[in-house]
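Chapter summary example.
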Amino acid sequence: MTRYLRFAALGDSTTYGIGDPVSAQVSPSGWRGWARLLSGSLASAYDVSFCNLAVSGATSRCVVEGQLADAVAHRPDVASLVVGVNDTMRSTWDVARIRADLMSAAEALHGTGALLLTARFHDHGRVFGLPGVLRRPLAARIEAVNRIYDEVHATYGGLRVDLATFPEVLDRSFWSVDRLHPSELGHRLFARHFADLLAAEGFEFEPVSVVPEGGVTTSWRTDVRWMVAEGAPWVGRRARDLGPWAVRLAWTEARGAREGARDGGRAGVREPVGVHVGAGQ
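The structure predicted for these 281 residues follows.
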């Protein structure tokens, strides 16, 4: 008899599937993504009830307020919690609140008996090609989120994928045109790593293929249309959100460099007032 397995996926645009376009017959949203690919592979051996609650643009607070209750009601056997990158790109950054949200979500999912799937994030600034003045604080924020996921894993266990250990994340083919969302290949590799961990945990099913298939073939015209309709507005929103923060940060770093030159490098770079970077505030 085929075992029934419930899989709930919580998160942002990556779990929603952006970057992996498919026909409406494959996914009503027009996006597939790593979670649906993993669900499809699990379905080779299980009767899977897949509940993808992820929303593009979601932050950790969005997950707690808009996704968690439905995920718990699904009574999942496996639940993925992959969110936090959007938090790092907001002027409302508050690491204490993010920790509270992620720990609360993990506790609730663990309380259902679900096996928790989480991730540690890579250096997005390196992939974006950001200048150092922006890359360094973004990397510090991402590392702060990673430390929260370390605590989640230490407290609630489960399986996790560390994207920073993927050599593929620095390969252009891993990313879609915006370099923020994985391409179909990137989604497949992410799903495959989770599948390998599940297999090591005792789940028996056909592994996720890393050969692209079933997706919609894009062209430079469709990429340009997507960037005009979605990518450029997103960049504009983040620029308005983070512009003042970036200016303050550049000024503070320049001041720190001047002071460091005067005292032999002991001053370092100070954080501007009101800009929270790291996990200590």
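To summarize the output: Residues 203 and 249 are 47 Å apart (CA to CA).
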